[in-house]
């Protein structure tokens, strides 16, 4: 296992905390930086939280509050319960979470798998889902692990766990076609031996290498897989085939089908070592576009030889960015904020407008007084009395007459008086609170 210095690990944790706390902004503007940091490895303390954000499981949980509890309380389909129960002790039997029968690890694993069979009854249960769910449970609670499992089955590897396994067969042909470009020697040997890709890649792809690679390599591969999608699974498979069968020296021990398959089942530890494998995977020139082009070619060949696919799985999404674009998370509603209403001739806060001199203020005040007098003349006696009383009450409450006497303070007091006149008591309280 590659040991990361403690100081470097703390720096990475700080950077990841900033990303997770501002996730939408980072995904929108700095997705390449997220991808580079996933390639370096997610800090162990934040790996579970990061996987939820990358996979979109966090958004799914927010969109379906209480759904997992509802499925968990349901009795479940007896057709699948016995099969799931028999598979529990086979998942990482030496891990402390799953070592004891009936322990909390096996109980949570049973809950997650049972809930998925109820969530997707048409798909049911596949044994390859158990190790996927077990790895997720090592990093997050059962409800969060359930929604991450849903995202893997629906977005990253759609159709992999259907009854006919048509999607995995198609991807086997895609892998074999890409191998011809990556390692012609390995491709020629497998073609000569007539070894079907399903014989060596089924467990690799369906379990996302959880049962194949050393644990440290599994975590690094999953970090990149959640960020970049199924492309990483293809790259890992191609790297393993290239270094296991890609030279004449290594093929000397693989004279037949049996020896070749055994070579692929017992891979060299050097090939699977974390630093070596990750570097090879990052540098391998296999893109999403190449994978989708090969997918169309193999799908056309399938239809010509076997007819239409029986399982209509949704198109897979290549990584966190594509998933976020397809299913954006909920946005918080904008809250209205109170605003201060100023008279038209008042300068705005922060503007460079100069205050009016005191004499000009007095002139305007006289004009307003004359205007109000003319208005009073146009009103009936009763209406004029009401307006005069209201004006006197406003002046007596807001601006005492003695505050208007000094000329130096006239502009400030007048502006304060005008702003107070434009606000009711409740509006004033809301504004300044």
What labels would you give this structure?
single chain, 433 residues, mainly alpha, Helicase, Ruva Protein, domain 3, Cyclin A, domain 1, 25 helices
Q: Could you explain the architecture of this structure?
A:
By secondary structure, this protein is mainly α. Among the domains are: 110 residues, putative rabgap domain of human tbc1 domain family member 14 like domains (Helicase, Ruva Protein, domain 3), CATH 1.10.8; 147 residues, Cyclin A, domain 1, CATH 1.10.472. It is built from 25 helices and no strands. The relative contact order is 0.08. The C terminus is likely disordered.
Please outline what is shown here:
With 433 residues, the chain is mainly α. It is 65% helix and 0% strand.
CA radius of gyration is 35 Å
The CATH class of one domain is identified as Mainly Alpha
Q: How many beta-strand segments?
A: 0
How far apart are the first and last residues' alpha carbons, in Å? 56 Å
**Structural class based on helices, strands and sheet pairing:** mainly alpha
* CATH homology superfamily of one domain: Ypt/Rab-GAP domain of gyp1p, domain 3
Largest sheet: none
The mean pLDDT is 82
Report the order of strands and helices: HHHHHHHHHHHHHHHHHHHHHHHHH
Provide the low-confidence segments as ranges: 375-379, 384-433
Strand content: under 5%
CATH architecture of one domain: Orthogonal Bundle
Q: Which percent range fits the helix content?
A: 55-70%
Number of helices: 25
Shape: globular
For this structure, the CATH topology of one domain is Cyclin A, domain 1
Pfam families: RabGAP-TBC
Protein name: TBC1 domain family member 10A
GO molecular function, one term: small GTPase binding
Organism: Ictidomys tridecemlineatus (Thirteen-lined ground squirrel)
């Amino acid at each position: 296992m590659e040991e990361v210095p403690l100081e470097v690990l703390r720096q990475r944790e700080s950077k990841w905390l900033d990303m997770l706390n501002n996730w939408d902004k980072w995904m929108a503007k700095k997705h390449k930086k997220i991808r580079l940091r996933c390639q370096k490895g997610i800090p162990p303390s934040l790996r579970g939280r990061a996987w939820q954000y990358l996979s979109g499981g966090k958004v799914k949980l927010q969109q379906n509050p209480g759904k997992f509890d509802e499925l968990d309380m349901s009795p479940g389909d007896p057709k699948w319960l016995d099969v799931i129960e028999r598979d529990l002790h086979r998942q990482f039997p030496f891990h402390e979470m799953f070592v004891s029968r009936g322990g909390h690890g096996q109980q949570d694993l049973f809950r997650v798998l049972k809930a998925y069979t109820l969530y997707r009854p048409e798909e049911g249960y596949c044994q390859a889902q158990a190790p996927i769910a077990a790895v997720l449970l090592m990093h997050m609670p059962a409800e969060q692990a359930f929604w991450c499992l849903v995202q893997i089955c629906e977005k990253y590897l759609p159709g992999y766990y259907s009854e006919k396994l048509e999607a995995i067969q198609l991807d086997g042909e895609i892998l074999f076609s890409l191998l011809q470009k990556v390692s012609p020697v390995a491709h020629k040997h497998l073609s000569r031996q007539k070894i079907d890709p399903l014989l060596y890649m089924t467990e690799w792809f369906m379990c996302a290498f959880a049962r194949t690679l050393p644990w440290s390599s599994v975590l690094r591969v999953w970090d990149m897989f959640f960020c970049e999608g199924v492309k990483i699974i293809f790259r890992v498979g191609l790297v393993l085939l290239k270094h296991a069968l890609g030279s004449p020296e290594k093929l000397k021990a693989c004279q037949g089908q049996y020896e070749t398959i055994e070579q692929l089942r017992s891979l060299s530890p050097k090939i699977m070592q974390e630093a070596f494998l990750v570097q090879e995977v990052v540098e391998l020139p296999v893109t999403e576009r190449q994978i989708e082009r090969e997918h169309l070619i193999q799908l056309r060949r399938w239809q010509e030889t076997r007819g239409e696919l029986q399982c209509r799985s949704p198109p897979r999404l290549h990584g966190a960015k594509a998933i976020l674009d397809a299913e954006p998370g909920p946005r918080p509603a904008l809250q209205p904020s109170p605003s201060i209403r100023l008279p038209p001739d008042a300068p705005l806060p922060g503007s460079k407008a100069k205050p009016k001199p005191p004499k000009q203020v007095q002139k305007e005040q006289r004009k307003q007084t004359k205007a109000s007098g003319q208005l009073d003349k146009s009103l009936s006696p009763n209406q004029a009395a009401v307006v005069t009383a209201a004006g006197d009450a406003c002046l007596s409450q807001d601006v005492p007459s003695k505050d208007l006497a000094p000329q130096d303070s006239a502009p400030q007091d007048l502006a304060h008086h005008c702003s107070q006149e434009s606000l009711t008591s409740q509006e004033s309280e809301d504004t300044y609170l």
